[in-house]
């Protein structure tokens, strides 16, 4: 049972991360250079420094069969910068079928998530900085046994506004991290990653275009792991049409 849990967790930990928040998901995950609402807590904490008000948002969805996703983000604007918290959890239910009497058939639930505290500050009108501390967790419960793993990471971000309608963002994730440890020791090491994002607003901010270039392992010679493209169009007042795509290399 112990070996089954370890093998399944390692396999699932190897799956590329999902985009977070409905807005960013609908834009293909291209949000590092946008980061203009409380979702910045997930993508680029530097964007928090530019928020003009307090924000609170959340979502719950069923993106796939037997899969649920819950997201929460809140930001508090103060004279000393913006403080924020975020939470995201993706849960997948599996039906385990076995002919081995030692490992009977049954259901198992795998949950992966992130709990975040972040801070952003506008150093100047054209640049802001941010930092994020987060606890990542992986949990397995059910017929295959119970396992619980966690890791802690520290991220940094910067967001430039060379013009009122343009943005350039850089986010470095897990620059300092503990790797995943838990029930059966260390099973997964985290590689620091980086993302560079570009955004541009046109037609009086009615059209937003975004591009993200991601490198999931900055120590690897292969510099580009995925590219995300997204757009947002305001068709009516406070009614938006969004679209995006994400091109990622096969990790296997």
Question: Would you kindly provide a written description of the structure presented here, covering whatever features stand out?
Answer:
The structure is a single chain. With 252 residues, this protein is mainly beta. Helices cover 8% and strands 58% of the residues. Strands 1, 2, 3, 4, 5, 6, 7, 8, 9, 10, 11, 12 and 13 form a 13-stranded antiparallel beta sheet that branches. Strand 2 (67-78) and strand 3 (81-96) form a beta hairpin. The radius of gyration is 19 Å and the shape is globular.
Tell me what portion of residues adopts beta-strand conformation: over 45%
Radius of gyration: 19 Å
Order of helices and strands: HHHEEEEEEEEEEEEE
Q: Unreliable runs, pLDDT <50, ≥5 residues?
A: 1-17
Structural class comes to mainly beta
> What's the mean pLDDT score?
86
What's the main sheet like?
13 strands, antiparallel
| Net shape | globular
What is the number of strand segments? 13
- Terminal CA distance: 26 Å
Number of helices: 3
Helix content: under 10%
Provide a short characterization of the protein structure.
The chain has 3 helices and 13 strands, in the order αααβββββββββββββ.
């Amino acid at each position: 049972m112990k070996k089954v849990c370890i093998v399944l967790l390692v396999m699932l930990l190897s799956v590329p991360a999902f985009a977070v928040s409905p807005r960013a998901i609908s834009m293909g995950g291209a949000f590092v250079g946008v980061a203009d609402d409380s979702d910045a807590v997930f993508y680029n904490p530097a964007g928090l420094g530019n928020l003009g008000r307090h924000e609170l948002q959340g979502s719950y969805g069923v993106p796939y069969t037997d899969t649920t996703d819950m997201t929460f983000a809140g930001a508090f604007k103060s004279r000393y910068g913006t403080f924020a918290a975020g939470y995201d959890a993706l849960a997948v239910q599996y039906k385990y079928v076995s002919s081995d009497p030692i490992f009977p058939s049954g259901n198992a639930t795998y949950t992966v998530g992130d709990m975040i505290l972040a801070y952003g500050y506008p150093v100047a009108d054209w640049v802001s900085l941010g930092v994020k501390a987060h606890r990542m967790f992986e949990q397995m419960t059910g017929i295959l046994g119970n396992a619980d793993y966690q890791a802690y990471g520290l991220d940094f971000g910067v967001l430039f506004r060379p013009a009122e309608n343009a943005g350039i963002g850089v986010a470095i994730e897990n620059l300092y991290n503990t790797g995943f440890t838990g029930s059966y020791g260390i099973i997964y090491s985290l590689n620091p990653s980086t993302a560079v994002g570009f955004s541009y607003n046109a037609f009086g901010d009615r059209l937003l275009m975004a591009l993200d270039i991601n490198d999931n392992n900055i120590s690897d010679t292969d510099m580009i792991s995925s590219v995300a493209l997204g757009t947002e169009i305001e068709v009516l007042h406070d009614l938006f049409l969004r679209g995006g795509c994400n091109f990622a290399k096969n990790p296997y």
